[in-house]
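hey can u check if this looks right to u? its 390 residues, i copy pasted from the old doc so theres a chance i mangled smth
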Amino acid sequence: MPGFNEQMSRLNKYARHFGSLCKADCNVFDVNKKEIYGACYCKRNNCCNYLNTHKYGCFEAQRWNGKYIYYCPAGFIFVAVALTDDLNRIDAGVLTGPVIMGNIEDFTCESSIEIRGVPNIETSVVNDIAEIMACVFIKNKNTGRGDYENLLNDFYKVRDVLDEDEIPPYPLGLEKQLQTAIIEGDSKLSKELLNKLLGHIFFGSNGDFRTIKTRVTELIVLLSRSAIDGGADMEQVFLLNKNYIDEIKAFDSLDKLSIWLSGVINRFISYVFEFNDVKHTDVIFKVINYIKQNYKEKLTLDDISSYVYLSKSYLSKIFKDEMKCTITNYINSVRVEKSKQLLADSSLSLADIAYFVGFEDQSYYTKVFKKITGVSPGKYKNIKGKGRSK
């Protein structure tokens, strides 16, 4: 069986070939080390918090059937596929990007970001790239590396100090220390304490698998509550919590549960401590892109929140925090900007223009247009017409 380094070397070779075909960077990402192999746009430009961004992309790919399309904080699109083994442990990912998706005129980024050489690709083609990447790169891997060994070592240390004839009481003090570490954002200490608690659960339950699953479930709930107290997103934590509890119920062996837990620890701590800004950026760019592509249609908050898999209340909150306006106001601003282009066409009536950009009627369009621009659409049309006639 090839070792991890040999597999990485082979993946890098295929990634280079794939990137050449796509005319975009394609690189292997070591999730555990948070390291990108080879030259890439992110390294060259040192833009945004790209290591956390791509770790997030790989973890999301793992959640969504192996592949995931996401925005980086600079506004570029990346595609990630997660490389896992038969127990769903993620060791690495393959990243393609950056690319600019859709209309280049809709792309916005910081003025310091270099966009020359970044390919502009249609949305359908980006989806094709994700599908082909999944076919090319997703393979079961069993590298024998990662935090599973560290987790087992902690378990065995606990077992060595336990007297088989006299199991000590469960260390509630460690739970309180874990809560404090999570609230204070100490990810390293959190992982160490969590491993010790899991060791006590595993070896202090007399081999009763049902008891172990119950205690692990309780510990994950504790982890969730502490994360929320520490400022993590309640919506995201509850979603992870539900998924994990459902997965625990399906396990039928201690070995599989142990290996799965090592991945859960990494993923949960990363979502709690590392990904808040990345997640929000990804969601906001997705919402903006969705609105720009669908502004002609009847857009509802239900549609948009379903598109990004968030509740309406949570999406509304983070959008307003980031964009300083409501989603409805942003939709209206996009429609008004698009209508300005149509107002240059003298053959179109105001009613037609209102319909073409998604407003339900002309009177509402006129009201919104005047509120945003300070003039009515009719007056704006006349001003533009006089400007062209000179």
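The chain has a mean pLDDT of 80.
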